[in-house]
Amino acid sequence: xxxxxxxxxxxxxxxxxxxxxxxxxxxxxxxxxxxxxxxxxxxxxxxxxxxxxxxxxxxxxxxxxxxxxxxxxxxxxxxxxxxxxxxxxxxxxxxxxxxxxxxxxxxxxxxxxxxxxxxxxxxxxxxxxxxxxxxxxxxxxxxxxxxxxxxxxxxxxxxxxxxxxxxxxxxxxxxxxxxxxxxxxxxxxxxxxxxxxxxxxxxxxxxxxxxxxxxxxxxxxxxxxxxxxxxxxxxxxxxxxxxxxxxxxxxxxxxxxxxxxxxxxxxxxxxxxxxxxxxxxxxxxxxxxxxxxxxxxxxxxxxxxxxxxxxxxxxxxxxxxxxxxxxxxxxx
Length: 332
Known about the structure:
Blueprint: E1 2-18, E2 21-35, E3 38-45, H1 54-69, H2 76-85, H3 90-108, H4 112-115, E4 127-130, H5 135-144, E5 149-153, H6 159-166, E6 171-175, H7 182-190, E7 200-201, H8 208-211, E8 222-224, H9 234-237, E9 243-246, H10 248-251, H11 254-266, E10 270-273, H12 280-287, E11 295-296, E12 309-310, E13 313-315, E14 318-320, E15 330-331
Parallel strand pairs: 4-5, 5-6, 6-7, 7-8, 8-9, 9-10, 10-11
Antiparallel strand pairs: 1-2, 2-3, 12-15, 13-14
């Protein structure tokens, strides 16, 4: 194999405002693995609140490049065991794992779905993110959108805003990015009307000291994001969260995501395949897991103005899976 890498800056179509801050662009590391005339692609995004520095990743890749390039082509699960031996950060491990699945499928002339015997008749519909803003402007954006499912960001609790969102009659989830308090969460658990929200994602900051006040046996569909990094978290989160948000970069790629989804399903969780603000490279990787999930939040490529790839796409929330080999990714 030959390993290539490049850092790309994605300009956002509008300011992306969440509880962690406001963003006008995202930078991503695009990893390419090449062999026998085929190329596989993976992506990881620079996220400040995850302390992800892409320049650090480039230094790491340079150190392990010769080891990766010396490998023979074997099954992706074997490659992933090798990646684990390198003790890479999960974001970088994910980019390499996804690139390898894409390459391996192209060499085998099979799609990821075929290789993993994933069959489906219906896919969940993806939400699109509505940034932090006044509730009036958020509702205006929702009314003007052609999407059907929305994830509304907020950076504090406001009962009036919550009720206005509920009264809209639209399919809405709330994501506070950890900005709610324990008292806020208890209010949600005491008001059955909030069951109309599809889910309430990562209500408080990460950690057991916060999520211990949440109860999964109420009508609130609490969803763990930062609190659920990999399958080792599932058992202890079960009394508190009904749902988990699976993001490839959090858990380390497609290979561990398959295991995470299987175990979460066995424990009775509802599952969402999520994303960062990333290009069609990252979205195409996440989309292949949509048939295994209850919810999807794969709007990342729809938020950027200068996408660099073609593959699976999300059109007004409808997931259109590529039928091409591997993950179906092609740079443009």
